[in-house]
Write a structure and sequence with these properties.
By secondary structure, the chain is of the alpha/beta class. Helix content is 54%, strand content 11%.
Length: 125
């Protein structure tokens, strides 16, 4: 089974401050973990504005090593088309994150974001 991580979950894991819900922690232990490439872009953006201490490439490398985290390779054009249906948010990153999980057969999405949870039924925390 695959599960996706949102940006804030990746940030928590990368900085050693997991404070992750029990269900999410269990899923992290048993699922193949993926992120959408948009998470990588958002991580770099957060690094550039000083909200992260590691560049996105280093975060990915660290979590690849520690958790086996992978970068999803669904075609970006397909994800962009699916993101057009995520009209509940103006946040382009959230649109792509949710669209990627939907395109992967409604894969679980590990997120503490309440707005995502309201609009994506397979959100786990």
């Amino acid at each position: 089974m695959i599960a996706y991580l949102d940006t804030h979950t990746v940030m928590r894991l990368a900085h050693g401050r997991p404070r992750i819900g029990r269900d999410a922690a269990q899923l992290i232990q048993r699922a193949e973990l993926l992120i959408t490439p948009m998470v990588l872009v958002e991580l770099e953006y957060l690094y550039e504005i000083g909200r992260l201490t590691l560049p996105a490439k280093d975060v990915l490398r660290k979590l690849e090593h520690e958790l086996g985290l992978g970068l999803c390779d669904l075609p970006l054009a397909d994800v962009a088309r699916a993101a057009l249906d995520e009209k509940w948010t103006r946040d382009a990153f959230d649109r792509f994150i949710v669209a990627q999980a939907r395109l992967s057969g409604l894969a679980p999405l590990i997120s503490s974001d309440e707005e995502i949870a309201k609009h994506y039924p397979r959100t786990v925390w």
